[in-house]
Amino acid sequence: VVITDISKENGEEAAHAAGNGAIFLEHDVAEEDQWQLVIKQTLDHFDELNVVVNNAGMFIPGSVEEVTWDQYRTHQRIHMDGAFFGIKYGIETIKANGKMGAIVNIASTTALLGYHTSFAYGACKGAIRTMTSHAAIHCQQLRYNIRVNCIFPSVIQTPLIEKLYADAAAAAEARGVERPAPLPPEQRIPSPGLGEPMDVGYAVLFLASDEAKFINGAELRVDNGSVINPAAL
To answer: What is the pLDDT of residues 3-15, one digit of tens each?
Structure first.
């Protein structure tokens, strides 16, 4: 397992937690030359590459009227450019193995539903959805033994999400808006639209495995039904 991240601290922590010989490589997914270097380092260490998971992300809230070009372009670089390079170099490298391989892209339910304050993020996640379809058909038509699938998580409880909620609560308090009392656990769990990181992790493991060998170009929602029954998040 190779874990890459622009943050050395976070990446090393994740690699340590993964164990089983996992290594960390510092990596800006928006830079093509860094993808080439990471691929080379991976092959030098493990001899082959069989699975690529495009999971890099960030989020700056903003509606279509509020988002700036710089914010929009930042979303594009990390989400769209990163996924493009991951798919491109993933296919190129995996097909050289002559073995079964998989690419798993992480999109978002914002690619399927409209959200007032997620314009740039949702647009880029929608692009990843389309990239997945085109790449899957490309591999099928050229008879590469590579599957390309996409996962659509809803809100997952990560440090990033916790910070976003805390910032929103602080902004509401500054405006004099009273915060509602927290719900007891039995009413919050399971909560539509809220999940844990491993809820997505297990979906990735399945789509990357040989058990999913007949699944290609699929769109898997990991959202506890929030797309078919939207609830306030």
So the answer is: 999 999 999 999 9
Q: Can 72 be counted among the known catalytic residues? A: no
Catalytic residue among 121, 144, 165, 202: 121
32, part of any domain: no
Cβ neighbours for 80, distance < 8 A, ≥ 6 positions apart: 124, 127, 128, 131
Q: How far is CA 26 from CA 50, 81, 221, in A?
A: 20, 17, 29
Q: How do residues 205-219 score in pLDDT, each as one tens digit?
A: 999 999 999 999 999
Domain that holds residue 218: 48-175+185-222
pTM: 0.88
Q: Minimal CA–CA distance to 95: which of 145, 157, 138, 153?
A: 145
CATH number at residue 100: 3.40.50.720
**Residue at 152 is within a domain:** yes
Determine if residue 21 is left, alpha or beta; phi over 0 gives left, psi from -120 to 50 gives alpha, anything else beta: left
